[in-house]
C-alpha cells in the first residue's frame, strides 16, 4: 500500500477525503522511470492515468520523416493520460522521462470511480484541461502569426511563467532545456535557436549563465499578439530580413491543424 503522504504531493489529490485516499493508496502503484525511458507510446491503447510525483516528462509526436515535435513538458504535480480514459481511444502522443521520475499510476476503473465520488478532483482536471486548451490555441496562433524569433520569445516567456524562480527587478531564472529540445518545440533548427538566443542575450532581453537562463517576466505579452508587439519593439528585430536559414525554418514549421485535426487542442494523452 502506498504512503498517503505521497499522494498529497500532487495538488490534484490534496483535498481528497481520507476514505477515498486510502482506497487510492490500495489501488494505485508507483513506477520509477529513468531519464529517457519511454512511458507510453502514440497509438497504443490507453488504460492508465499518470500523476508525476518527482521528475519531468515530455509529450511529443514523431513526424512521418522521423522528426520529433515536442508538444509540452510536464513536471511534479502534473498529470497525463486522462483523455484516452474518457473516450476509449488510443494515445495520440508519446511520453518519455526527461529526468529520473516517479509516477503514480491508476487504472481506468479506479480513476473513474474517484471522479464519480469526488467532484473537487473532477473540477481540477477540468481546470487543467481548460488551461491546456488555451495554451494549444496560443500555440496554433503562434505557428500562423509569428516567425521563428517570435516563437522563441513566446517559448521563453511561457517557460518563465510556468517554471521560473522569481529574481530581482522582475527577472525569472529557469533551467534551460537543450537547444535541440527548444528547436523541436518551436519548429526550428538547433543552429537557429543558438543564434537567436545569442542575439537575445546581446540585446539584454535574456541573461545566460551556463544551463541557466534569466528571463524578464512579461505577463501581458505571453499571448501571440503581445509577443508580436514585443518583437516589433526590439531595436533590431531578430530575423526581420529573411535569411536562407530562416526560410528553411519556415518550411519546417508544422502546419496548423484544421477542424477535427490532431493538433495539441485535439490530442489525447
Report what the structure shows:
The protein is of the alpha+beta class and 269 residues long. It folds into two domains: 114 residues, Sandwich (Jelly Rolls); 126 residues, Winged helix-like DNA-binding domain superfamily/Winged helix DNA-binding domain (Arc Repressor Mutant, subunit A, Orthogonal Bundle), CATH 1.10.10.10. It is built from ten helices and twelve strands. The strands form three sheets. It has a four-stranded antiparallel beta sheet with strand order 1-8-3-6. β11 and β12 form a beta hairpin. α6 crosses α9 and α7 packs across α8. The longest helix has 27 residues. The protein starts with a helix and ends in a 17-residue tail after the last helix. The C terminus is likely disordered.
What keywords describe this structure?
4-stranded antiparallel beta sheet; 42% helix; 22% strand; 269 residues; alpha+beta; Arc Repressor Mutant, subunit A; globular; Jelly Rolls; 2 domains; disordered C terminus
List the helices and strands and how they pair.
Blueprint: H1 4-8, H2 18-27, E1 29-33, E2 38-40, E3 48-54, E4 56-62, E5 68-75, E6 79-80, H3 82-87, E7 94-97, E8 101-107, H4 108-117, H5 119-145, H6 148-163, E9 165-166, E10 171-175, H7 179-186, H8 190-202, E11 206-209, E12 212-216, H9 224-232, H10 244-252
Antiparallel strand pairs: 1-8, 2-7, 3-6, 3-8, 4-5, 4-7, 9-10, 10-12, 11-12
Helix pairs in contact: 4-5, 6-9, 7-8
